[in-house]
Amino acid sequence: MFPSSLPKPRGLAPQAVPVLRWGIIGPGWIAAHFAKALQEKTTQRLVAVAGRHLDKVRAFAEQWAIPQAFGDADEMLALKDLDVVYIATPHNHHFPDGMKALGAGKHVLIEKPLALNAREGAALQQKAQRQGVLCMEAMWCDFTPKYDVLRQLLADGALGELHTLIADHGEFFTADHRIFNADLAGGPMLDLGSYLVSLSVMVGGGAPAEIIARGQSAEQGVNGQVSMLMQHPNGMHSVLHTTLFSNTPGGAVIAGRDASIVLDGQFYAPGGFVLTSSQGNKTLRWEEPLNRYQQLYHEAEHVAWCIGQGRTDSPLRPLATSLITVSTMDEVRRQLGIVFNEER
Ligand SMILES: NC(=O)c1ccc[n+]([C@@H]2O[C@H](COP(=O)([O-])OP(=O)(O)OC[C@H]3O[C@@H](n4cnc5c(N)ncnc54)[C@H](OP(=O)(O)O)[C@@H]3O)[C@@H](O)[C@H]2O)c1
Predict the structure, then answer these.
(1) pTM of whole model > 0.70?
(2) 114 and 175 both lie in a single domain
(3) Which of 212, 216, 242, 215 is nearest to 230 (CA)?
(4) Domain extent at residue 27
(5) 204 and 335, same structural domain?
(6) On the chain, which terminus has fewer CB atoms closer than 10 Å, C or N?
């Protein structure tokens, strides 16, 4: 049944979001956006930051008014007055940094992808369970108002029987970017592809039953692009593509028998979408400010809410969902023969 209006995004009650003391490991590009979003949009407290080079960590701390800077993550993790750690290091450091922070008894928010592969992801899950703390993947789009509206439309059956998801995510990167670095688990799959696979798992209702992948290498020895075809438990097909060679529109289409949603590129970031009935006679449009990095604050508030509720797994982004995403990427990589250094 076509809705008369779009569902309203459901926010968290401010009184249910405790103010936590945060530390950051990896004062790089995304960590700066995260710090800015927290400072501008929340009452969360950034109390410490750690990285490899103390000069850089100090500069980061100064820029974002963080009182303590450490050249060694272990020193930061020894702090008693630290509740939760945001891990923003390159992909292949998520697992060792995550295990370290969990071992110190801290809650953790780990940048996407949760880990290099399902084996590492499962070890993080076990460690968090043993320590009785929260571990969550920072798949930030899952916590934004737009994704909440999409989830409600899907749950309400507004699209009817789902048949097709088509999405792409291609970006041009210069050769000096870490995405070309084989020593940092480069290639577009974990960086860009994780958004595609995650969306397909959300829309398709679980792990794909069948996966077919084709890839092309980049000169630097990492994978350059991947095309994926998946069939999901609900019968839906996903056609997904990611590349580091070029910019692509980055849109997505979620097509059902009764209606379709066309998301503006980049589909996972704040932006518009149109819901159109299959007869073409009814449409509803979602619009919002294009405040992409500011919306990182939603994931942080969700983490604080979970911790305040005594939860050790997020109801929105449970580790089981992250593990399905990582396992799916494992299978894509297996078909393409992509092996990371840590797996050799
Ligand atoms: N949520 C999002 O929108 C989003 C966007 C981009 C990236 N990400 C994710 O965030 C993670 C970091 O990406 P980024 O673009 O922020 O990377 P980045 O700018 O290169 O920052 C990475 C940070 O990790 C540190 N690091 C620790 N060990 C390192 C090593 N062996 N080699 C290089 N750096 C090391 C870096 O140290 P130094 O400070 O010493 O250089 C830097 O502080 C990635 O996993 C990526 O998937 C998320």
Answers:
(1) yes
(2) no
(3) 212
(4) 14-141
(5) yes
(6) C
Question: What's the pLDDT score for residue 234?
Answer: 86
The answer on 149 and 136 residing in a single domain is: no
CA–centroid distance, 230 to ligand 1, in Å, is 30
Residues 193 and 134 in one domain: no
Each residue of 318-335: pLDDT tens digit? 999 999 999 999 999 999
Give the number of domains in the chain: 2
Atom of ligand 1 nearest to the CA of 140: 1
Task: Determine, yes or no, domain membership for 302.
Answer: no
Q: Which of 100, 121, 141 is the C-terminal boundary of a domain?
A: 141
Give me the CATH number covering residue 158.
Answer: 3.30.360.10
- pLDDT tens for 285-323 read 999 999 999 999 999 999 999 999 999 999 999 999 999
- Minimal-distance CA residue to ligand 1 atom 6: 30
Alpha carbon of residue 203 to chain centroid = 15
198 and 129, same structural domain? no
Q: What is the pLDDT of residue 95?
A: 98
Q: Residue 132: give its domain's CATH number.
A: 3.40.50.720
Rounded Cα–Cα distance for residues 55 and 70 (Å): 10
* Pocket of ligand 1, beta carbon within 6 A: 26-30, 51-53, 56, 88-91, 93, 111-112, 138, 140, 178, 184, 191
Indicate the residue among 79, 111, 141 that finishes a domain: 141
Backbone angles phi, psi at 187, to 5 degrees: 105, 160
Q: Is 315 helix (H, G, I), strand (E, B) or coil?
A: coil
Q: At residue 209, what is the residue type?
A: A
Token output for 26: 């990896």
Q: pLDDT digit string (tens) for 157-212?
A: 999 999 999 999 999 999 999 999 999 999 999 999 999 999 999 999 999 999 99
Q: CA gyration radius for the chain? A: 20
* Atom 5 of ligand 1, residue of closest alpha carbon: 30
- Ligand 1 atom at shortest distance from the alpha carbon of 56: 39
Residue 44 above 90 pLDDT? Answer: yes
